[in-house]
Design goal:
With 115 residues, the protein is α+β, with helices and mostly antiparallel strands. The protein has helices at residues 3-10, 26-37, 72-86, 101-114; strands at residues 18-23, 45-51, 57-63. It has a three-stranded mixed beta sheet with strand order 1-3-2, with helices on both faces. Strand 2 (45-51) and strand 3 form a beta hairpin. The longest helix is centred in the C-terminal third of the chain and has 15 residues, at 72-86.
Length: 115
């Protein structure tokens, strides 16, 4: 899947930017969620950004297909979502999440990738 690379290109990320996407089992994602956020339980996506001295962006996106409806479109949505987090996008929790700029950008990219 080249989702991250396409999003990086659309966002005009600096040359040399790269994001790895890894699928995790529910148990592995629960452990990562606890270490990363201190929260117990399963989450669908966790993203880490590793900015580089030359301006490039390196990052990791971890997805648990078992935490969400597992189909092609949702897997693409989670990959785009995590990639946007690595690029610095964020969204509020709760009801405002789906009205945020990040969500609008995410859904525009998902439509481009799913067609």
């Amino acid at each position: 899947m080249r989702v991250a690379q396409r999003v990086l290109a659309w966002e005009r990320a600096p040359a040399g930017s790269h994001i790895d996407i890894t699928l995790l089992s529910p148990a592995a994602m629960r452990r990562m969620n606890r270490r990363a956020t201190g929260r117990r339980g399963l989450t669908d996506v966790i993203a880490y950004a590793l900015p580089q001295p030359d301006g490039a962006i390196q990052g990791d996106v971890y997805i648990s297909p078992d935490a969400a409806e597992f189909n092609r479109e949702e897997l693409i949505r989670l990959a785009v979502h995590g990639t946007l987090h690595v690029l610095g996008y964020d969204h509020p929790d709760g009801a405002g999440r789906m009205r945020s700029r990040m969500w609008r950008v995410q859904e525009r990219y998902v439509k481009k990738l799913v067609r």
